[in-house]
Amino acid sequence: MVGNPHAPERDTRETFAFIRRIKKLNPEAEIIVQHYIPTPHPDGMYGEIDGQVQFPQTPEEWATERWYNFTTREDPHLAWLPRKVKRRIDNFELVVNSRWPTVQDIQLPRWGRAMLKALSSWRYTLGIYDWPVELQWAQRLVALRKPRLESL
Q1: How many C-beta neighbours within 10 Å does residue 2 have?
Q2: Cβ(53)–Cβ(76) below 8 Å
Q3: Buried b / exposed e across 67-105, counting CB within 10 Å, b at 16+?
Q4: 5 with 47: CB under 8 angstroms?
Q5: CB-side exposure of 143: number of CA atoms within 13 Å?
Q6: What is the per-residue pLDDT across 35-71, written as a single tens digit (0 to 9) for each?
Q7: pLDDT at 95
Q8: pTM passes above 0.70
Q9: What three-state secondary structure class fits 103?
């Protein structure tokens, strides 16, 4: 979970460093990056964000595109998460998923796995996550599985 409401930029930096430390210790560890998304709770929500998110009251409201994007963490529009930080998180996720494609993707051809690793290794090594368009194209080309989205 990335993007703690108290200090989303600092939390993002610290979480990236933590993930990089985990991958250094165990490159086989599966990492699933997600934005911090609050869930309704009767006693208030973590991060003291009460009043910043007005949750739907009916199933019909939950079924709208805005709340679908919120629950899937695809584009949650969080008041405390600046767009540039969200974009940094999404780009980091793209680089990590390319550098270490999920082992759950048994249909990913060996050449596709090698291509993704080769294209992303320099970005991960140097910590350059901005504008990874080559990785977006490559992931589309090989139809890389996305466990975070497929599990919903």
Answers
A1: 24
A2: no
A3: eeebeebeebebebbeeebbebbbbbbbbbbbbbbbeeb
A4: yes
A5: 4
A6: 888 776 667 666 667 677 788 889 998 889 888 888 7
A7: 97
A8: yes
A9: coil
